[in-house]
Amino acid sequence: MFEGVFCPSITITDDDGAIDYELWGRHLDHLADAGIDGVLLFGSIGEFYSVSLEDKKSVVDFAVERVASRMKVFVGVGDTTYDNVLELTRYAQKAGADAVLAVSPYYFGPTDDAAEKYFGGIADATDLPVVLYNFPARTGTDLSPELVARLAAAYPNICGIKDTVDTISHTRKVIRAVRKVNPEFSVLSGFDEYYLVNRASGGNGVLCGLTNVEPELFVRMHGAYQAGDFATAIECAERISSLMAVYDACDLFISAIKVAVNIKGLPISTAIFDPAIQASDDQKATIEQLLS
């Protein structure tokens, strides 16, 4: 259902944390014009954990209108309060989004039975496609291949996953397990440098942060792979591999991505929500060198 290159957008604010709609709109335009297949609002890079429900609703309305069907719009519905998760899920459908993305509950990581109830409730709350978000390094629990397959079998609109696990073997096992249930189930890797191995394993692409910075590079790689131009695809993958160092340049990877977008020419604030260590001038210089 979903294939290609998807961008988990940074949440663009001013220095005081208010949503900057003008610059965020320009960022969305850049992604769409570059040929990105879809944008995710309020993923991990989108600092979903620090944005109010009302601001999220306002941004969803804005983004759906601004994008105007030039690419897919996914809405991250993660929250520590389940009522908020369900409310934003329903709102995303009302606003005209194309899918919701649901991260596992965190702090008290769910058992498989609790996870089935949690994700099942989200699926029951909407007719939209539901994309699972597996990020065990942050949530503390893993969505196993067997659990993903059970969810796909029980809920037809659970039809994709972003697998942010730093081993392709996990993603490959998810692909094999879930395709027995739904051959059209989309499996996207959350790590930028996994595009080629994801596709070689039968997956559908990536939903990854560096697409904020150089979307054209990822679109070029995807197009080359689709066309069988593997030399070009590998050339792009090598550039992406070198850019992975950007993630480690700041105290938190979200800062690094915002700094990189700023260096690329969009004059956004690089502030991230507190509590956080903001990017220093030295870190910004390091990122500028990496991008060059």
UniProtKB/TrEMBL annotation:
UniProt organism field: Collinsella aerofaciens
Keyword Isomerase: no
Protein name as annotated: Putative 2-keto-3-deoxy-galactonate aldolase YagE
EC number: 4.1.2.-
GO molecular function, one term: lyase activity
Keywords associated with the record: Lyase, Schiff base
Record: active site: Y133, K162
Keyword Lyase: yes
PANTHER family noted in UniProt: 2-DEHYDRO-3-DEOXY-D-GLUCONATE ALDOLASE YAGE-RELATED (PTHR12128:SF28), DIHYDRODIPICOLINATE SYNTHASE (PTHR12128)
Family: Belongs to the DapA family.
Gene3D superfamilies referenced in this protein's UniProt entry, alphabetically: Aldolase class I
Annotated GO CC locations: cytosol
